[in-house]
C-alpha cells in the first residue's frame, strides 16, 4: 500500500495494483479497495492467486470472477479491471473449453482488459484470441512476454505455471545454458521475433514480465527498434 501511495503521489503513469483474493475475507478485500480508491486508483489487476502454504479457503472469495464482480459493484462503471488469461490453458482447468468459459465469465462479471500468461508459441495466443472472440469476448487481450535469461529457472517456472516451452526451444536453450551471454542474446532475438509477429497480428499492446531485469527488456526493445 505504501508503494502504491508513493507512485500515485508522483503523478506518473496510471497505477494498477495487483489484488489476489483466495484465502482473504470480504472485509479484508473491502478495506484494500477502499484504501486504493482513496488514493485515486481506478484500475486493478484482479486475480484469484495461489493458496498460501498452511492457509485454507474461507467464506470469502474463491474465484477471480467473484472478485471482479465485487470490484465492479464497489467501484462502478468507470473502473478498469484487468484479469488473467491462459492461451495454453490454466493448470487447474480440465479442458480448454472449460478454461475459455472461465475467462468469459470474468469478462461477463465486468473485466475490461486481460493480460495473458507468457508463452513462446504465438499460434497459441492467436487461437485463444479467436476462440474468445467467437464467444463474444471483445476486450483487449494483451499478450504476456517473458524474457529468457536462465534455462533451468525458466523450465521449472514454466512447468509449475503451465506455460509450454516448445521442444525445439528447449533443445536450443539446453545447448546454450552454460553460456549465459549467448543464451540471453538468443532469447532476446527469439522473443523479439515473436513480438514482431504478434504486432503484425494486431495485438493491442505487449506486457513484459520484467522480473526485475530491465536490461533484458531493453535488449528486446532494441531489436524491435523501440530504443
TrEMBL record:
GO terms for biological process: methionine biosynthetic process; tetrahydrofolate interconversion. InterPro entries: FAD-linked_oxidoreductase-like (IPR029041), Mehydrof_redctse-like (IPR003171). Keywords: FAD, Flavoprotein, Oxidoreductase. One of its GO terms (molecular function) is methylenetetrahydrofolate reductase (NADH) activity. Pathway: Amino-acid biosynthesis; L-methionine biosynthesis via de novo pathway; One-carbon metabolism; tetrahydrofolate interconversion. It comes from Cardiobacterium valvarum F0432. Its cofactor is FAD. CDD domains: MTHFR (cd00537). The keyword Oxidoreductase applies. The keyword Electron transport does not apply. Belongs to the methylenetetrahydrofolate reductase family. It holds the Pfam family MTHFR. One of its GO terms (cellular component) is cytosol. The lineage of its organism: Bacteria, Pseudomonadati, Pseudomonadota, Gammaproteobacteria, Cardiobacteriales. This is Methylenetetrahydrofolate reductase. It catalyses: (6S)-5-methyl-5,6,7,8-tetrahydrofolate + NAD(+) = (6R)-5,10-methylene-5,6,7,8-tetrahydrofolate + NADH + H(+). It comes from the Bacteria.
Amino acid at each position: 500500500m505504501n508503494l502504491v501511495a508513493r507512485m500515485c503521489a508522483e503523478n506518473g503513469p496510471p497505477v494498477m495494483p495487483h489484488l489476489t483474493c483466495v484465502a482473504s475475507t470480504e472485509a479484508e478485500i473491502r478495506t484494500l479497495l477502499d484504501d486504493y480508491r482513496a488514493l485515486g486508483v481506478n484500475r486493478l489487476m484482479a486475480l484469484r492467486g495461489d493458496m498460501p502454504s498452511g492457509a485454507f479457503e474461507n467464506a470469502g472469495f474463491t474465484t477471480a470472477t467473484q472478485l471482479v464482480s465485487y470490484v465492479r459493484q464497489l467501484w462502478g462503471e468507470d473502473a478498469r479491471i484487468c484479469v488473467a488469461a491462459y492461451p495454453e490453458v490454466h493448470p487447474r482447468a480440465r479442458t480448454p473449453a472449460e478454461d475459455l468459459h472461465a475467462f468469459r465469465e470474468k469478462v461477463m462479471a465486468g473485466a475490461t482488459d486481460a493480460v495473458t500468461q507468457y508463452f513462446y508459441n504465438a499460434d497459441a495466443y492467436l487461437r485463444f484470441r479467436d476462440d474468445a472472440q467467437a464467444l463474444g469476448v471483445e476486450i483487449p487481450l494483451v499478450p504476456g512476454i517473458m524474457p529468457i535469461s536462465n534455462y533451468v529457472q525458466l523450465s521449472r517456472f514454466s512447468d509449475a505455471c503451465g506455460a509450454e516451452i516448445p521442444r525445439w526451444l528447449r533443445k536450443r536453450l539446453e545447448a546454450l545454458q552454460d553460456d549465459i551471454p549467448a543464451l540471453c542474446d538468443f532469447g532476446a532475438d527469439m522473443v523479439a521475433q515473436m513480438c514482431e509477429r504478434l504486432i503484425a497480428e494486431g495485438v493491442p499492446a505487449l506486457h513484459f514480465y520484467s522480473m526485475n531485469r530491465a536490461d533484458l527488456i531493453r535488449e528486446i526493445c532494441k531489436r524491435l527498434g523501440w530504443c
